[in-house]
Amino acid sequence: xxxxxxxxxxxxxxxxxxxxxxxxxxxxxxxxxxxxxxxxxxxxxxxxxxxxxxxxxxxxxxxxxxxxxxxxxxxxxxxxxxxxxxxxxxxxxxxxxxxxxxxxxxxxxxxxxxxxxxxxxxxxxxxxxxxxxxxxxxxxxxxxxxxxxxxxx
Amino acid sequence: xxxxxxxxxxxxxxxxxxxxxxxxxxxxxxxxxxxxxxxxxxxxxxxxxxxxxxxxxxxxxxxxxxxxxxxxxxxxxxxxxxxxxxxxxxxxxxxxxxxxxxxxxxxxxxxxxxxxxxxxxxxxxxxxxxxxxxxxxxxxxxxxxxxxxxxxxxxxxxxxxxxxxxxxxxxxxxxxxxxxxxxxxxxxxxxxxxxxxxxxxxxxxxxxxxxxxxxxxxxxxxxxxxxxxxxxxxxxxxxxxxxxxxxxxxxxxxxxxxxxxxxxxxxxxxxxxxxxxxxxxxxxxxxxxxxxxxxxxxxxxxxxxxxxxxxxxxxxxxxxxxxxxxxxxxxxxxxxxxxxxxxxxxxxxxxxxxxxxxxxxxxxxxxxxxxxxxxxxxxxxxxxxxxxxxxxxxxxxxxxxxxxxxxxxxxxxxxxxxxxxxxxxxxxxxxxxxxxxxxxxxxxxxxxxxxxxxxxxxxxxxxxxxxxxxxxxxxxxxxxxxxxxxxxxxxxxxxxxxxxxxxxxxxxxxxxxxxxxxxxxxxxxxxxxxxxxxxxxxxxxxxxxxxxxxxxxxxxxxxxxxxxxxxxxxxxxxxxxxxxxxxxxxxxxxxxxxxxxxxxxxxxxxxxxxxxxxxxxxxxxxxxxxxxxxxxxxxxxxxxxxxxxxxxxxxxxxxxxxxxxxxxxxxxxxxxxxxxxxxxxxxxxxxxxxxxxxxxxxxxxxxxxxxxxxxxxxxxxxxxxxxxxxxxxxxxxxxxxxxxxxxxxxxxxxxxxxxxxxxxxxx
Lengths: 153, 763
Hints:
The complex is a heterodimer of chains A (153) and B (763). Chain A is an alpha+beta fold. Chain A is built from five helices and five strands. In chain A, strand 1 (3-8) and strand 2 (11-16) form a beta hairpin. Chain A is globular, with a radius of gyration of 15 Å. In chain A, 59% of the residues are buried. Chain B has four domains: 5-204, Aldehyde Oxidoreductase, domain 4 (2-Layer Sandwich), CATH 3.30.365.10; 228-296 and 363-439, 2-Layer Sandwich (Aldehyde Oxidoreductase, domain 4); 302-357 and 449-528, Aldehyde Oxidoreductase, domain 4; 564-762, Aldehyde oxidase/xanthine dehydrogenase, molybdopterin binding domain (Aldehyde Oxidoreductase, domain 4, 2-Layer Sandwich), CATH 3.30.365.10. A seven-stranded mixed beta sheet of chain B has the order 11-12-9-20-17-18-19, with helices on both faces. In chain B, a hairpin with a 2-residue loop joins strand 17 and strand 18 (373-378). Chains A and B meet through helix 1, helix 2, helix 3, helix 4 and helix 5 of A and helix 6, helix 7 and helix 17 of B.
């Protein structure tokens, strides 16, 4: 089977996967990561989101052979046991019920806030549009992103 | 080998310290627990140690036979146990839902986690405190009545410096006493000891906004989710679904997947699956496998035809003859007489769509079936019943099957969660290896059990003073019990029916709690035959607030229609028709908070593209009372409706955790708005056509309210009610009333999609 090298959370990995294998399957099955999750396989929900060169990418439809940049995942966000400010804000606001979708909201919020920490409420809503939360924790998520923005600004 | 609970706890070390369940479970898996003949007996509810154990270091573990679906239940139960034990809440761990370790308390069901599920835990913890105080007094050499308890220790009242910790008292030994069990299983299960639980006035931990303990791991990516279960030697499976609802596989072409290393097909009666060593290979095999299906004649009425179908279909059951839920005999005659003599009769039909659970992640199940025993990993709401169903399917005694509950995607009722674990069990038995079944998005949306569609017919007989002399409510729809509320037998699952188990033949809809008191009232339901008898993607089961969203949509909109027709304020009419003081309290609280104005309840006549309105609705159930005011913006050009502000007043009795209940109410509001605005299962003559998030949209972040205000009435004099559902039930009605207030147009069918509202506005 073809070997591909990808850099995930600062470490290079040589992985065995067919070129069409979505990055999500490589992260979960080959690297045993738990942050990015399967939700739809159609790029419609965002639970599989990772950051590649600062951009939020849906790993469930991204073939591993197309990954050129460095991948950041939820698993690698906390540094020295200290949560990323966005994670800390989501914890402080208790912005989850089941929490299955949290990966998508946290990774996407990082992409939004790293580019524009002064994002307005309307911009946050607009840029997080399309992500799905089935439990309906939208209000808490908005509070968490605003809190994180205040921290990161 | 008998892997009983006691041995498990010893081997896993959780009697020594509060080892996390996941660590303990991993060590069990690594051992030889799955050797032939292993047993997983039920923990006896009569043993106090079934409920509470104390480690040497004083850490307490409480064993909860329900599960936390993300509403903060685990934290609330820890608060209740800590309260009764006089412990800091951080020193209480909760193990939930594992059938080897917890008694069958019925799982997550009917918002019963606190209002029923906490009761035996509270009693057991109080009894444990009593037993520990007695033993502590002996160790301290004083009389039993000379000691108190605080901070996980027993101390001498006269000299608090003399004290001993709970862990030291037991020194790793069990509590060793019994409690009285009421011989019930499931949600009504209760136990009592000699000790009486504390009175509310003495609470220190209950009622405090303790941080939810499940939250940090969820944000850090370290939660032990079902989807993360990876067993050595585990195969990955996908199920093949037919292109037409009732089709079954005839044959398949194995050569079509020969190019995929290790991929194979399992075909057993109507079940067709592919398995592979690697997950992506299973996905590819499912896509590539050539299958010949039967081509049955299908004549579903389609999304647009469903309401005429319901109206004209013969009723096959009603609550007047229901066998399972007990019957509630009704008599339409007095109501019809009153309507015949009324000065004026108002009538309206309300149309309610099929809706899907559509969990954020579709069903997952992992099974490791060995000769003579099985371990199942599932995120079902009811692990103890899934154990019974899988045992029957595998033809094993129940004590040879263990279901290990894991957190998963939110579930909201009898979702697809119960399906993949059964399929994994079948495949693991066939293949002799652990198997993980992962459903696709299509399956999770198109093949999960649905909330039933219905037509709710309302009639009110008005006298010449506008008084209500007759009230008629008929719910006619599909049964909410095509699939039972527990998967305790194989026919309650798709795979069970595929393997030949005959569909459960029970019927249920809903008769609302009698909120409004009118003379000559009749409320009843009738069900029609399912669209497809066997293994149907349109089979129905409970979806959060089962059948209640439907009935309250009708009831709460129709009472507004009566108010409009008789020139009354909808609030005043409700207050006059309610007899329950707690309903009146929430109505008053919500309207005060929202600034309800009796003079502004006629349809507004604003011009311009965007108009605003507000609507009121009430709900009573699960021991709770909820009233809502929703303020909407309606874009008359596009038909788009935005619920800008939602105000809630809720009385759920005694509040355990004020922070959590607010979060639960907010989640109810948003999911309720989603069901009101967005959600409708679509289907044609042959199959379900809402199959993903594009075809089954839910409320987007852009449409989240600007503001959710709430008044939570903490009724310390009342037992805790359920909070998981009450706020959600009447939101659809409140939005319907708000749209009427904004536009003068009455929407009698939901969801209120832009297209539907635009069509109604231009009709």
